[in-house]
Specification:
The structure holds 2 protein chains of 2 kinds. Chain A is α/β, with parallel strands linked by helices. Chain A has helices at residues 13-27, 39-42, 45-50, 62-74, 85-91, 93-101, 130-135, 148-160, 206-219, 237-247, 262-273, 293-299, 304-320, and strands at 11-12, 31-35, 55-57, 78-84, 107-112, 141-143, 165-168, 173-174, 190-193, 198-202, 224-228, 231-233, 250-257, 278-283. The chains are: A alpha/beta, B alpha/beta. Chains A and B meet through α4 and α6 of A and α4 and α5 of B.
């Protein structure tokens, strides 16, 4: 899997999103795109330039943008709304809950600049809590793709789905981990690597680090299964349980706070049906800060080394129990 | 494609018919709220004439084809006034009038605030204040994109315009110069905690909307002729949105509520009070 990452160029998921909108916008005339004065950063500008009649800049007013999206969707449109994750999920949470999700409308919230990966902008712009608050809303689907090609597939699948989707995208360029052979189905995780000793479940930028960790663990004789859990809600419980039963220990890894993220969801599923040792990699009750992503990932314990250590710990707990 | 109700002329006969309907609607509101034991009578009764003028005269809609793509849309942004909307929808034939007595009860489609998934004729769920004008903007933009000539009506409360999102939407609708949307402000002067000018004054209301690029019409919200004329005039204004600022009385039609509007935002009449109100309305 990993060797493919050397071939295609790195691309940020936000950039892949902009490209995907262009393609699907040409195929589907019902697609409307809204942005809140960040169209260059979110890359919706590409769509705006090509389809000016189906793009509306809503200015710096995210609450209104979400309500407008609901109104458009109620008239049969498939709407994409974009801004930074902190403003999409954070500022407009109640509009998303009451007017988009309660009405189960076809609004796809493509929120870019999620997580610590925003880097130098600092804590005010680093949205590390969005998975928790978005996945708590009934009807909402939450997806965090791991690379550019997967982002494109997610956009196309989101359009097919009837109901709201929260698409969590990043600012930083990331290597390509998936290939054309990887079928993307909402709610179905993808097993990137199979091993019998431990299961690592990751999403977004942490998938690459999970694959690197698996290689390191292999050197020490621990073979890991790595699951790219691109859909956090609905969670692929079946795949997690099947792998946990096989390996007997689980590590989760995400660029998000530990409360209410992927780790919480996986732990909840396991605790109910297959209570195996679990270790979680995520942000522990802290705000972010300015710095380049690599430095921040070290500071907040979101590294390959941290995943390796967590995997060894979980593996040890399994052996000693 | 269904045959939508044609816009009627506001002849004298129509006015009498409409007034008769407002009486029925008000009686329904009083009865259903008394039966429910909770809800919002004051703002339902103040909005009644404005709603009847729309649904029984000026709006293109068809109870037998509630999802018709060409219909005019209505958004009750002040969703707590849903007893008025439910009653108007029932009297228009969207569902049986008997269902009104299920308001707010477990298992009823008539939720405490409107739910589009449960009630035909409700174009969007509402209840959380400040959001309806944005939804109306989305519907109006969809009409422009699809080159349809339907109109979008959004009714707001005067306390509701304290919400910042209203002004985000007002700015955007003004910016896009949408003339297929008509806002209606039920200016009854009261919010839950008291008179709006004492709690958090939104005045001068007219100047604010004008400053956001809107055409503003001011009317007596209980004068049916004025109401119908305002809806007609709004249709003729091109290149900018129109808001009808309707002066109304909270609790209109029920003496004890008109006399003490502050007490009747969110409390309902007892069985005795309701029966007296109904006989006075008759």
């Amino acid at each position: 899997m990993k060797e493919q990452s050397n071939k295609p160029e790195k691309i940020a998921t936000r950039a892949a999103y902009g490209g995907a909108l262009l393609e699907i916008g040409a195929l589907n005339k019902e697609i409307i795109v809204l942005d809140a004065d960040l169209s260059k950063s979110t890359t919706t500008k590409k769509f705006a330039d090509k389809f000016p009649d189906r793009f509306f800049n809503m200015g710096i007013a995210e609450a209104n943008m979400m309500g407008t999206a609901a109104g458009l969707a109620s008239c049969g449109k498939t709407v994409f709304t974009s801004t930074f994750a902190i403003f999409a999920a954070g500022r407009a949470w109640e509009q998303i809950r009451n007017t988009i999700c309660y009405c189960n409308l076809n609004v796809n919230i493509a929120a870019t600049h999620a997580g610590l990966g925003v880097g130098p902008d600092g804590a005010s712009h680093q949205m590390n809590e969005d998975i928790a608050i978005m996945s708590s809303i009934p009807n909402m689907v939450v997806i965090e793709p791991c690379d550019g090609p997967e982002t494109k597939k997610a956009v196309f699948e989101a359009v097919k789905l009837n109901g709201p989707v929260y698409l969590r995208l990043g600012r930083a360029t990331v290597p390509v981990l998936t290939s054309d052979e990887h079928v993307f189905k909402i709610g179905k995780g993808i097993t990137f690597r199979s091993g019998d000793d431990i299961t690592i479940v990751a999403c977004g930028m942490l998938v690459e680090k999970a694959l690197d960790a698996a290689e390191e663990l292999s050197k020490d004789g621990i073979e890991a299964t790595v699951i790219n859990m691109h859909t956090i809600k609905p969670l692929d419980r079946e795949l997690i349980l099947e792998s946990a039963k096989k390996t007997g220990a689980v590590v989760t890894a995400e660029q998000h706070v530990l409360n209410g993220g992927l780790g919480s969801a996986v732990a909840s599923a396991l605790a109910q049906e297959c209570p195996v040792p679990i270790e979680m990699i995520g942000i522990d009750n802290r705000f972010g800060q300015s710095g380049e992503p690599d430095i921040l990932f070290k500071e907040y314990n979101l590294t390959t080394e941290c995943i390796v250590a967590a995997a060894k710990k979980a593996h040890q707990r399994k052996s000693s129990s | 494609m269904s045959t939508l109700i044609k816009t009627a002329n506001s002849s004298t006969t129509d006015i009498y018919k409409l007034k008769d309907i407002t009486k029925k609607v008000r009686i329904n509101i009083v009865k259903m709220l008394s039966e429910a034991g909770s809800g919002h009578p004051g703002g339902s009764l103040s909005a009644t004439d404005l709603l009847v003028g729309l649904y029984f005269c000026k709006m293109k809609h068809d109870a037998s084809d509630p999802k018709c793509a060409d219909r005019d849309r209505f958004i009750l942004s002040k969703g707590h006034a849903c007893p008025a909307l439910y009653s108007v929808l029932a009297e228009s034939g969207y569902f049986d009038v008997d269902e009104l007595m299920g308001l707010r009860k477990f298992g009823s489609n008539l939720q405490g605030h409107p739910d589009m998934k449960r009630v035909n004729g409700v174009d969007i769920s509402s209840g959380s204040l400040g959001q309806g004008l944005s939804v109306g903007l989305g519907m109006a933009l969809a009409g422009v994109v699809d080159k349809k000539n339907y109109r979008v009506y959004v009714m707001m409360g005067d306390g509701e315009i304290q919400e910042g999102q209203i002004w985000e939407a007002a700015m955007a609708i003004g910016h896009y110069k949408l003339d297929n949307i008509c806002a209606i402000l039920d200016n009854n002067g009261y919010q839950i905690d008291g008179p709006i000018d004492q709690i958090m004054s939104p005045y001068p209301i007219v100047d604010k909307w004008k400053a956001f690029g809107w055409n503003v019409l001011e009317i007596d919200g209980h004068d049916m002729e004025a109401i119908l004329d305002a809806y007609d005039e709004a249709k003729t204004v091109k290149g900018k949105p129109t808001i009808i600022i309707a002066k109304t009385l909270k609790g209109k039609g029920v003496g004890l509520m008109e006399a003490d509007p502050s007490s009747w935002h969110g409390s309902v009449p007892s069985k005795e009070q309701a029966s007296e109100a109904v006989s006075n309305l008759n």
